[in-house]
Write a structure and sequence with these properties.
Length: about 450
């Protein structure tokens, strides 16, 4: 009797151990395959997409800005240095509920400054909707959304132009961290960006849609007219991504366009940024929740470590081999990313400290599943790292302005590059007659009503 009871308890414990191990191993395997298969597909050789010999599309660059007086000039300098005809690009800056001179910085950089004062409706999503309402009146072929603290590589618009000429409707640029040596946090972000880059390349080659990432998003005007912008949450890109997928619009990867961003160097600033981003986990509801969870790299890595610990505690030999395979596959993905970012003596030290950053971000992400997310749009503190753009400015003198005259609300000012210089091709239903100024392209700066 006692022996039978012992056998029954042992069997129960074994079944519980197996169930618990599988409960960790199965999701860990799904997450690993999400990164591994596209990364492998991205390693396959593919003929590079040739750039268009002649520019085809006109671009409107939309920059939502909240208290970005210090970082905006460098972003505008990177746009001024683009290898693209200046008459085919116009820059709009939405100075959204700003307490500084962001609008003056936009004027000085040759952009069209759109001032939005609406304290009851704050957020990047509201700023984007406000700017889109204005710039779509000028009928650009493509709208490029860019954060106010980011820079573009010189060939970005040529890469986008080739993608849209090939029939792409929405394209996402590559995102690269510009300050990996500033600390373990920025270094971990740089490695994470390299992982995302490898996955995006593979997804694109497999013909799958890639996620929008908030900056470096190129959208045809026709898509914005068909799928109107109505994403006003903290993670507006994730919300709009869901709407695009529901409308059958694919987001393709444009690796030739590179957006450089500086990650917060201080742990507290990085945590605050992550708290905003974690809201993306719930964007789109439960149907897309598994995909959102898998895309959170800190959460995936924390879950993999927990899986290895649970399997080791269970003592199942087959579970041990399974977990070891997942760890090795994940390690291979990150080794590739580390090599892509580049190694140095300092970066080896940062690499050794990066697991603590990952664990911290993983905890912040897990906490986001049970805590209410912040609803405010605050700029993240960053060190400005646009040495390349500054070198271009010093060499060419583009974007140098010593002072900006005071402007009263609604008073027109000299617009500079991107406003009066913009030209567009006539729409298909108009009479041919050569290019002319885009309607509404006065370069006015004024206070426009909020949404």
């Amino acid at each position: 009797m006692i022996i039978a009871l012992i056998i029954s308890v042992a069997r129960g414990l074994l079944m519980l151990t197996v169930a618990l191990s599988l409960g960790f191993l199965v999701p860990a395997t799904a997450a690993c395959l999400y990164y591994l298969l596209p990364t492998l597909a991205g390693c396959l050789r593919r003929p590079p997409r040739a750039d268009q010999a002649d520019p085809v599309h006109t671009f409107a660059v939309l920059i939502p800005a909240h208290n970005e007086e210090s970082s905006l000039p460098a972003t505008l300098r990177s746009i001024a240095a683009l290898d693209w005809p200046p008459e085919m690009v116009r820059v709009y800056v939405v100075a959204d509920n700003c307490m500084d001179r962001t609008a003056d910085a936009a004027d000085a950089g040759g952009a069209i400054a759109l001032i939005r004062n609406d304290p009851d409706n704050r957020g990047k999503g509201h700023a984007l909707a406000f700017g889109l309402d204005r710039l779509l009146e000028d009928n650009p072929d493509v709208v490029l959304i860019l954060d106010a603290d980011c820079g573009l590589n010189a060939g970005a618009l040529r890469a986008f132009d080739a993608a849209f000429a090939a029939g792409v409707e929405v394209a996402q640029a590559a995102i690269r961290n510009g300050n990996p040596d500033d600390g373990p946090g920025p270094y971990a972000v740089a490695v994470g960006d390299a992982v995302d880059d490898g996955v995006a390349v593979g997804l694109d080659r497999l013909g799958r849609s890639v996620p929008l990432r908030g900056t470096g998003m190129g959208l045809r005007r026709t898509v914005l007219e068909r799928v109107r912008w109505s994403a006003f949450g903290v993670v507006e890109d994730a919300e709009y991504d869901v709407r695009l997928r529901a409308a059958g619009v694919q987001v393709r990867y444009c690796g030739g366009a590179v957006v450089s961003c500086a990650a917060p160097a201080r742990a507290g600033d990085l945590d605050r940024q992550r708290r905003r981003w974690r809201a993306a986990l719930l964007a789109g509801g439960r149907r897309v929740l598994p995909t959102r969870l898998v895309r959170s790299k800190p959460l995936v890595l924390v879950h993999l470590a927990a899986t290895a610990a649970v399997v080791a505690w269970g003592g199942l030999e087959w579970g041990g081999w399974w977990a070891a395979g997942l760890v090795l596959a994940t390690a291979a993905i990150y080794v590739r990313a580390v090599v892509s970012v580049g190694l140095s003596g300092r970066r080896v030290g940062l690499l050794l400290r990066a697991p603590w950053v990952v664990a911290r971000l993983g905890w912040v992400t897990v906490a986001g599943l049970v805590r209410r997310d912040p609803g405010r749009w605050d700029r993240t503190a960053r060190r400005e790292v646009w040495e390349e753009a500054d070198a271009v400015r010093k060499e060419t003198g583009v974007g140098q302005t010593d002072s900006t005259p005071a402007v009263h609300p609604g008073q027109p000012v000299a617009a500079g590059r991107g406003a009066a210089d913009f030209r567009r091709r006539p729409p298909p239903d108009s009479h041919p007659g050569g290019p002319g100024p885009a309607p509404g392209g006065r370069g006015d700066r004024g206070v426009l009503p909020g949404r």
